[in-house]
Amino acid sequence: MHLKYGGISLLLSTSLSTLGAALTFDCAHVNVDSYKYDLSKLRGVHEIYHVNETETAVTNTTYVLNICRNLGSKAADRGDDGKCGSTKRICGFVNRHPTDGNGSKRFAFPIVGLEHMGGGSMEPKYTRLETIDPETKGVRVELAGGEFKGFDDEGKKKEAAAVIDFKCDPDRSGLEGLTTEEDSEEADSGSEKERKRRRDEKAESSKRSLHFKSFELEKGDKDGDEEYILRLDWRTRYACDEYQRGKQENSSSWGFFTWFIIILFLCVAAYLIFGSWLNYNRYGARGWDLLPHGDTIRDIPYLLKDWVRSVVNTLQGAGSRGGYSAV
Q1: CB of 86 within 8 A of CB of 70?
Q2: What is the pLDDT of residue 312?
Q3: Which of 55, 47, 57 is nearest to 105 (CA)?
Q4: How many domains would you assign to the chain?
Q5: φ, ψ (nearest 5 deg) of residue 171
Q6: In terms of Cα–Cα distance, which of 126, 144, 284, 115 is closest to 225?
Q7: Cβ–Cβ under 8 Å, residues 232 and 26
Q8: Which of 28, 97, 179, 307 is the most buried (most CB within 10 A)?
Q9: What is the pLDDT at residue 156?
């Protein structure tokens, strides 16, 4: 009976862990088509800024993201700029200013993340970019879990998601030109004008690895319903097949060497233990006599000393030989 319940418990825990892995996104283990990508080096809170100007309004949107973990209350809740939710991984913070100067709005909305208290799903989907465009290397990551009503607050809320194309670039870490959480804290201490200047500088940087592509209402996969999709391009060496393969080979080599040392140590330990047990039971040995080849082990320091002395004498003899030879 205990075995039966134990088996059920093990099966249930395994199923739950598998389900949890399917619902969340682990940036360190992105597996697709027998390829493995580790994007954990891109962790941290980052920002990307976008301005959309129309005849009726100027909309400044800051997209805050951390692909490896939840944003937390510090990054996701910004007081007057709005609250997005601490269990989200990507949020948008909007400052919308009508051209007539009336009715400015500030609000936040979630794009990717879990529901309150960690429920819900991010529904991660992975695609190698090479299968979409043979000339492009990398991996596409699709993440869900957000909702958005529209910049004008018209109509009902629709689902929101993100599509991030991690493109292979061997010369980039992926962190070049990014606005981090520390930059935001420094900018928040200044005026709104100074904050905008800093963001504009980041937006104009040609060295930036993360690029905004679009945030639009698109036709989704679920029953043809429309959803808002944030599309980003992220250039990084961690999306290169060659980089990941070399990393895995280095890891395998180090693993083999480690196992070789462990096995060698276990073999020596087993030999000493078994030999000591045999000497104790067969000959009643004690102390150093317990060890197999105890006399040889005791003589090792002296043998080493004699060998060093012999080498030194040989070198001294070769160095002191003169330039004359016997007749």
Answers
A1: yes
A2: 87
A3: 57
A4: 2
A5: -90, 0
A6: 144
A7: no
A8: 179
A9: 81
User: Is 314 among the domain residues?
Assistant: no
Domain that holds residue 132: 10-239
pLDDT at 303: 81
Residue 286 CB contacts under 8 Å (≥ 6 apart), including other chains: 280
Q: How far is CA 172 from CA 48, 207, 251, in A?
A: 17, 9, 22
Residue type, 50: H
Which pLDDT score is estimated for 271?
Answer: 83
pTM: 0.64
The stretches in the chain having pLDDT less than 70 are 1-23, 116-120, 152-155, 179-206, 220-224, 243-255, 318-327
3-state secondary structure of 305: helix
In terms of domains, do 262 and 186 share one?
A: no
Asked whether the CA dihedral 287, 292, 295, 301 is positive or negative, the reply is negative
Residues 254 and 222 reside in one and the same domain: no
- DSSP E strands in the chain: the ranges are 30-32, 35-37, 46-53, 57-65, 88-98, 105-113, 125-128, 138-148, 158-168, 179-180, 210-219, 226-236
